[in-house]
């Protein structure tokens, strides 16, 4: 990945935090992670999830964030340095397919918008996560799973969602079982029965503050802009009219704008021996 790509990706991720944080927080709280526990955040990116988790597990706990990209690790460290729980988070560069820890090291491990979210060796990553978690500890995967961002335009939105960008990071060359919504079966494949799944919604309501507006503009571009092959010229035009900030009909300018998106979490406990 070129440096310019890294900084653009980093910027998109940073801008998305105000949008994602409330729903991620709700989902993570629902896990009831034990106070003073030690956990791992795999594919931590800029460390938003690591910071939220560190805040939840209390002053005796500790979160380690792991990411393959050293630039993300540096930035995650500097963002955590400005928080009250900086002593309780460690960031480390490494590969999720070969976690640099012994078996049974952590009380729990999780991953958001990374493991299982795309064309990757999900089973290998999940097996690694389960390996480093103690018997009885929780392993969870979470990912963005749907959205309604264009209220009043269901046909346009459905058409955009059916485009390659709309189904990304899934693709038509992948098997159905590789889709995140089939994540419960991944746990069975690595010998962990009874995985549960739950979906959480985040809401967006006008008036949007400037942070949220920026996040939504970035989301509209990221979600559908790249690849609209297969869309009629009429629908492309409608997309531009509604989703371009300079357009007089920009959808975020609706005084009654309401949208939602969902995060789905799949989780299970490592069996006791
Ligand atoms: C979409 S970001 C999600 C970041 C973070 N979990 C969040 O929700 O804000 C995915 C992250 O996975 C990291 N990643 C990709 N491949 C990886 C690998 N093999 N091992 C560890 N991290 C990896 C990327 O560098 C990136 O930071």
What does this structure look like?
- The structure is a single chain.
- By secondary structure, this protein is α/β, with parallel strands linked by helices.
- It has helices spanning 3-29, 48-57, 70-80, 122-131, 154-161, 164-167, 183-189, 210-224, 233-243, and strands spanning 38-42, 62-67, 89-93, 106-112, 133-148, 196-205, 258-269.
- The protein has a single domain (3-269), classed as Vaccinia Virus protein VP39 (Rossmann fold), CATH 3.40.50.150.
- The chain is built from nine helices and seven strands, in the order αβαβαββαβαααβααβ.
- It is globular.
- The chain starts with a helix and ends with a strand.
- The model has no long low-confidence stretch (mean pLDDT 94).
Helix-strand layout with pairing:
Elements: H1 3-29, E1 38-42, H2 48-57, E2 62-67, H3 70-80, E3 89-93, E4 106-112, H4 122-131, E5 133-148, H5 154-161, H6 164-167, H7 183-189, E6 196-205, H8 210-224, H9 233-243, E7 258-269
Helix pairs in contact: 1-2, 1-8
S-adenosylmethionine (SAM) binds at residues 13, 43-46, 48-49, 66-69, 72, 95-97, 112-114.
Radius of gyration over C-alpha positions, nearest whole angstrom: 19 Å
CATH topology: Rossmann fold
Q: How many separate helices?
A: 9
* Euclidean distance between termini CA atoms: 42 Å
Assign the CATH class: Alpha Beta
Just name the CATH architecture: 3-Layer(aba) Sandwich
Number of strands: 7
Strand content: 15-25%
The profile of the biggest β sheet is: 7 strands, mixed
Q: How many domains?
A: 1
The CATH H-level homologous superfamily: Vaccinia Virus protein VP39
């Amino acid at each position: 990945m070129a440096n310019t790509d890294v900084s653009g990706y980093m910027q998109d991720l940073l801008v998305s935090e105000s949008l994602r944080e409330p729903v991620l927080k709700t989902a993570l709280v629902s896990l009831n992670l034990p106070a003073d526990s030690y956990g791992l955040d795999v594919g931590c990116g800029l460390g938003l999830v690591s910071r939220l988790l560190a805040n939840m597990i209390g002053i005796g706990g500790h979160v380690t964030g792991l990411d393959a990209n050293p630039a993300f690790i540096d930035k995650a460290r500097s963002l955590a340095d400005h928080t009250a729980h900086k002593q309780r988070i460690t960031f480390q560069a490494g590969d999720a397919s070969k976690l640099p820890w012994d078996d049974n090291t952590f009380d729990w491990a999780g991953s958001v918008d990374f493991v299982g979210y795309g064309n990757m060796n999900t089973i290998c990553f999940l097996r690694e996560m389960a390996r480093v978690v103690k018997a009885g500890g929780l392993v969870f995967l979470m990912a963005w799973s749907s959205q309604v961002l264009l209220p009043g335009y269901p046909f346009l939105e459905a058409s955009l969602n059916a485009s390659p960008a709309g189904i990304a990071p899934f693709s038509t060359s992948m098997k159905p079982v590789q889709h995140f919504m089939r994540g419960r079966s991944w746990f069975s494949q690595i010998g962990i029965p009874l995985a549960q799944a739950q979906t959480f919604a985040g809401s967006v309501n006008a008036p949007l503050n400037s942070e949220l507006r920026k996040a939504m503009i970035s989301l509209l571009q990221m979600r559908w802009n790249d690849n609209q092959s297969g869309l009629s010229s009429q629908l492309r035009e409608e997309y531009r009219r509604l989703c371009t900030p300079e357009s007089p009909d920009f959808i975020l300018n609706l005084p009654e704008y309401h949208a939602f998106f969902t995060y789905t979490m799949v989780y299970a406990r490592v069996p006791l021996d």
